[in-house]
């Protein structure tokens, strides 16, 4: 009787697991097998949850610290904006534990840019226009400490901000850092699987507006959507996390349930920022200057 009961229980467990999507099973296993990360945005991603940001393009300590209370991470814009490293350094230092994990979109994957970003306290980098494996490898190469990569041990404020209270910054950094690359061209689409499978790349996202520009297809065009789907399929096949810069795709799109990392988007607590005139801001819109000119509704870049 006992033997029969055990067999029945094993069968029920097998049936239950079969009904759970593989991604959810992997996320549960990951969460159960490892201690939680202090990079809360990365932890949410590993749990299969979507993460959203606000974009910080200007030097504004007060505004930054207020917004950081309400979002998963900060998208510091250093590809297109005129922010300097000292500006980002000062804003992060003012409220490092406000809530949003600081990440920087850099202009490239050069060593000195990545080293500066991480030494000043960023816990993630976003590298744009990754067309090939070489650029992806450069991004990964400088983003973690040896033995897995080549980040040098420098000064900076990072260890002071994130270390202490039982946290060994140097030993735990490699697990906590988040390396994101953007695919924004048909060339990148063609190489998406090889880019995504590079060791050290955590997340691959589509740069939706630049993909429109480089491909010549509007975002409503089936050919455009086929490019996005290929990136999605290749990223998932490589076992990495997929996202889209355009936060309007976080729901109501065929890939929404499989898209996890976005530029901008809704806050964690329902908070809505306002513009200079006190009017609510469209939180899913792309930053000013990066909108889709066909809609002006905001198509993440």
Task: Name the CATH superfamily assignment of the largest domain.
Answer: Phosphoenolpyruvate-binding domains
Pick out the low-confidence regions: 1-31, 296-300
Total number of strands: 8
The biggest sheet amounts to: 8 strands, parallel
Oligomerization status of the protein chains: single chain
Using the 3D structure, state the CATH architecture of the largest domain.
Alpha-Beta Barrel
Q: Please tell me what the overall shape is.
A: globular
Quick one: CATH class of the largest domain?
A: Alpha Beta
Number of folding domains?
2
Share of residues in helices: 25-40%
Q: Can you write the helix and strand succession as a string?
A: HHHEHEHEHEHHHEHHEHHEE
What would you call the structural class?
Answer: alpha/beta
The overall pLDDT, averaged over residues, is: 88
Could you please say which CATH topology of the largest domain applies here?
TIM Barrel
* C-alpha Rg (nearest Å): 20 Å
Number of helices: 13
């Amino acid at each position: 009787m006992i033997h029969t009961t055990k067999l029945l229980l094993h069968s029920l467990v097998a049936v239950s697991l079969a009904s759970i999507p593989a991604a959810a099973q992997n996320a549960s296993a990951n969460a159960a097998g490892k201690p939680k990360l202090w990079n809360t945005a990365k932890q949410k991603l590993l749990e299969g949850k979507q993460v959203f940001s606000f974009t910080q393009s200007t030097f504004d300590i007060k505004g930054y610290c207020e917004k950081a209370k309400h979002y998963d991470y900060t998208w510091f814009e250093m590809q297109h904006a005129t922010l300097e490293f000292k500006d980002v350094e000062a804003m992060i230092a003012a409220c490092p534990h406000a809530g949003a994990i600081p990440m920087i979109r850099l202009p490239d994957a050069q060593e000195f840019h990545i080293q500066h970003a991480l030494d000043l306290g960023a816990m993630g980098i976003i590298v744009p226009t990754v067309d090939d494996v070489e650029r992806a490898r450069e991004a990964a190469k400088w983003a973690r400490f040896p033995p897995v990569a080549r980040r040098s041990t420098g000064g900076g404020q990072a260890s002071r901000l994130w270390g202490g209270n039982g946290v060994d910054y140097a030993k735990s950094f490699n697990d906590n850092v988040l390396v994101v690359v953007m695919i924004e061209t048909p060339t990148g689409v063609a190489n998406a699987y090889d880019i995504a499978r590079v060791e050290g790349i955590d997340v691959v996202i589509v740069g939706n507006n630049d993909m429109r520009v480089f491909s010549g297809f509007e975002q409503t065009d089936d050919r455009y959507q086929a490019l996005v789907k290929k990136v999605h399929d290749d990223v998932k096949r490589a076992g990495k996390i997929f996202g889209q810069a355009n936060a309007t795709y976080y729901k109501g799109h065929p890939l929404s349930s499989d898209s996890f990392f976005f530029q901008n988007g809704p806050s964690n607590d329902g908070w809505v920022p306002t513009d200079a005139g006190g009017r609510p801001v469209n939180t899913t819109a792309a930053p000013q200057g990066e909108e889709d000119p066909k809609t002006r509704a905001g198509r993440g870049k």
